[in-house]
Amino acid sequence: MFQDEARFGRMVRPKRCWAPAPLRPVLSNGYEREFVYVYGAVSPLAGELDWRVGREMNTTRMGEFLAQVSQAHPGDLIVMVLDGASSHKAKDLPIPQNMRLLPLPPYAPELNPQEHVWDELREKEFPNRVFNHLDAVIRQLHQGLPRLAADQERLRGLTTWPWIVSLNLNAHYNKVAKVLSEGDRYGRGRDSGGT
Question: Would the pTM of this model clear 0.70, i.e. be above it?
Answer without folding.
Answer: yes
